[in-house]
């Protein structure tokens, strides 16, 4: 891959160079904060239940969470709209350059931030450098904690293992994890399209959170195709990108106050 | 104490003892390595040699390789479909486990031989579609009884093939066409991307 040196460094030029491939829009005006996306994501991506004690330490593992803030001074406080926060799959990601073992590279083929679990050594530098606070660390082997198992004839049986998604790695202790934009679904759709000799169509597949959203507030697709639904939504006037001033080039556009 | 020990080591008996210790440790290690290279114990002594020799296609028993990630291991019903028409099935002692299992209504618990770790997501379909034959990776099944791995399936081995098949050289692009070069470049990006297999 050749890098045009004229484009490196200048903020606007980077934005121009990094158009992105997969993107998402989240309509905060119609999000009801029902957390269906949070549940769907946990089911799709084998996200562990950390338990009460670790949750108390702030070690909860959610690849998407609903944020809500308070606006104004007491007693005149007002709730801000629900804000689903997930990995923004930055085109210029702060997590990537800090990894000492290159376990979170930028995918040149899919233009996503990857997390390679078998390469991760658990320095947690990436999570500390993420301005969106969306990375979570596996402090234990949460999928095999004895409290979750049933003792059957002297052997520990884990009934919840039956609902694990075989297309997603079960993360072990000591690795970082984050939203992948359901890369397993991307691969599946691409594989299916290729076997039928065509391109992936817009809306043919979607992420687990977008699929579960009852209000259809989340839209997923190709942002580099101008005719796709997500790219038309992303170019609406009410679109905002979070912490844009950090020049992270997020691929998620929030639609607010239309 | 330590001085005495070294004096003993230098004595003829001590030297012999050291040689014997080193040799037994080495043979233990060699035995350990040998053990890891053995094909696993299977529920029945399935002869790939014989079945392939009879002209049965790999895809007859492992049809998933054509469609998706897992080729699948045949259920006992698939075995029975052919074997119930063969007179030898009822008499052969080697086939007795299958007949017993069929009569008892239980299946085989095959032990998969070629497996990748959980953090690798391998799909057979694109590999078959790219024109690879089964024996390119799994070895010549006309020569083995129980399936075994002909090579260590690690990432270097995968990437070597991915790189060599997308290199812009005479073999992949004999005419030096610019369009083919671009296509190979795109393919190479995809095939050497971490996210293609690890997620």
Summarize this structure briefly.
The complex is a heterodimer of chains A (258) and B (199). With 258 residues, chain A is of the alpha+beta class.
Q: Which of globular, elongated, flat, extended, rod-shaped describes the shape of chain B?
A: flat
Terminal residue distance of chain B = 57 Å
Strand content of chain B: under 5%
Helix/strand-derived category of chain A reads alpha+beta
How many domains of chain A, as an integer? 1
- Under the CATH scheme, the architecture of chain A is 2-Layer Sandwich
Q: Helical residue percent of chain A?
A: 10-25%
Q: Which regions of chain A contain 5 or more consecutive residues with pLDDT less than 50?
A: 9-17
Strand order of the largest sheet of chain A: 10-1-12-11
Head-to-tail CA distance between termini of chain A:
40 Å
State the assembly state of the protein chains. Answer: heterodimer
Total helical elements of chain A: 8
Portion in beta strands of chain A: 15-25%
CATH topology of chain A: Alpha-Beta Plaits
Shape, per Cα inertia axes of chain A: globular
Main sheet of chain B, how many strands, which sense, barrel?
A: none
Q: What is the SS-derived class of chain B?
A: mainly alpha
Topology of chain A as a string of helices (H) and strands (E): HEHHEEEEHHEEEEHHEHEE
Mean pLDDT of chain B: 89
């Amino acid at each position: 891959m050749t890098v045009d040196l004229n484009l490196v460094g200048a903020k606007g030029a980077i934005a121009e160079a990094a158009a992105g491939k997969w993107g998402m829009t989240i309509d905060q005006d119609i999000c009801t904060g029902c957390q269906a996306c949070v549940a769907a994501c946990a089911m799709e991506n084998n996200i562990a239940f950390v338990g009460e004690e670790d949750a108390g330490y702030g070690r909860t593992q959610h690849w998407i969470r609903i944020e809500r803030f308070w606006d104004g001074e007491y007693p005149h406080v007002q709730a801000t709209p629900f804000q689903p926060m997930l990995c923004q799959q930055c085109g210029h990601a702060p997590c990537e350059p800090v990894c000492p073992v290159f376990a979170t590279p930028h995918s040149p083929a899919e233009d996503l931030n990857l997390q390679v679990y078998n390469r991760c050594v658990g320095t947690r530098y990436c999570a500390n450098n993420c301005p969106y606070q969306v990375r979570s660390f596996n402090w234990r082997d949460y999928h095999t904690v004895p409290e979750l198992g049933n003792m059957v004839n002297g052997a520990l049986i884990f009934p919840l293992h039956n609902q694990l998604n075989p297309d997603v790695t079960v993360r072990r202790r000591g690795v970082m994890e984050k939203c992948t934009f359901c890369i397993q679904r991307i691969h599946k759709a691409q594989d299916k399209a290729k076997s039928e000799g065509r391109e992936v169509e817009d809306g043919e597949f979607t992420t687990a959170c977008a699929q579960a959203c009852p209000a259809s507030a989340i839209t997923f697709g190709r942002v580099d195709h101008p005719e796709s639904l997500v790219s038309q939504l992303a170019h609406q006037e009410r679109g905002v990108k979070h912490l844009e001033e950090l020049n992270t080039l997020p691929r998620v556009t929030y639609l607010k106050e239309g | 104490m330590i001085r005495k020990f070294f004096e003993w080591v230098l004595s003829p008996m001590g030297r012999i003892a050291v040689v014997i210790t080193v040799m037994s440790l080495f043979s233990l290690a060699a035995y350990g390595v040998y053990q890891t290279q053995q094909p696993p114990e299977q529920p029945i002594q399935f002869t790939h040699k014989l079945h392939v020799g009879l002209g049965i296609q790999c895809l007859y028993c492992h049809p998933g390789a054509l469609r998706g990630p897992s080729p699948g291991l045949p259920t006992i019903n698939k075995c029975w479909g052919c074997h119930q028409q063969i007179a030898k099935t009822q008499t052969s002692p080697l086939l007795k486990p299958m007949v017993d299992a069929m009569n008892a209504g239980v299946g085989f618990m095959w032990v998969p031989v070629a497996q990748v770790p959980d953090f690798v997501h391998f799909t057979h379909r694109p590999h078959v579609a790219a024109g690879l034959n089964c024996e390119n990776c799994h070895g010549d099944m006309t020569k083995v009884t129980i399936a075994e791995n002909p090579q260590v399936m690690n990432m270097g081995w995968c990437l070597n093939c991915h790189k060599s098949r997308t290199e812009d050289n005479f073999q992949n692009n004999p005419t030096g066409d610019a369009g083919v070069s671009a296509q190979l470049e795109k393919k190479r990006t995809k095939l050497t991307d971490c996210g293609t297999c690890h997620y």
